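If you are new to this repository, start here. Below is one unmodified record pulled from the training split, so you can see the exact layout before writing a loader.
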Amino acid sequence: MIVPQHWAEAKIKTKIAGRQYTIKRFGWSDQSLEAAQTHAEQRVAEAIERIKAGENIRRIDHKVPYNGAEGVPIREQIIAQQEDVVITRNAYGALCLNTPDVLFADIDFEYTPPFKLRLVAFLLLLLISVASAIYTASWIALGVGCVLSFILTGLVTKILFNLHSKFGGTPEQRALASIQNFSKQHPTWHLRVYLTPKGYRVLVMHQTFDPHSDEAQSLFNAIKADPNYVRMCKNQNCFRARISPKPWRIGVNRLRLGVWPVSEERLAIRENWVLDYQKRAENYASCKFVAQLGSQTIHAKAKRVQSIHDQYCKSDTRLDIA
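And here is the target side for that same chain:
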């Protein structure tokens, strides 16, 4: 996990084998801006050598805050750091906890029918149409049936989804059940479960994990964790949890100057936004502790991260979550 203090940019236009290339690379460093600039220039030189060797590589590093071009670290303002636990402000202004080895996983409630259910609904209607056409021996019936299948798929999908929620549990119940089932199958795991505005968060307490490990992936798969989050964990070699409210949930517009660093002339605008956001965020929590599942084993590192997480999130209060 790398969350650098300093960023710089190097850009060059050059000809290679008769073709014009524009190469731009970012550099980073925890020591100084000069070291970051040297790193950027080194990365440009490496890119040129790879192109000369015949590799097909990207020419431009794009300025994105998180999970950007492969090999580019998290580009967010560092707010606080306790050993290797780093608190950053993300692109829209919320605080995030970043840890290289304490496992967090989020699961979102499925309030909208999945694509597979929509496909089942369409195929069911299409089957009825084909059966009707065969029974009536009419191509017209088949054509009308196919048209109606397209028109009615949305309605039938909604009906099937509601029936699934009625007999198979609400999205909230199904999400919690997936976590509980994982706990039953892995009784040595110590799981802390938190309620978020639209899902659950799981914090694993009994040991630390490599983000690329099969064990971490087994939890992600079992609870159907957000695939974008899973990919970012692997790309950035860390786990991550939002620990302050999303701005729009507390009546604040998202931060417009979110990609770090910000130019000096625009820094005051960003700081004013942060002051307003922090004032409004005081009355909200980010998640709420729900349950402890599994073993009582606690790893010292996980306990330290849990304390930081719970303090920032206000997870033991009765405040509204946002």
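Two things worth knowing about this chain: Residues 129 and 145 are 5 Å apart (CA to CA). The chain has a mean pLDDT of 89.
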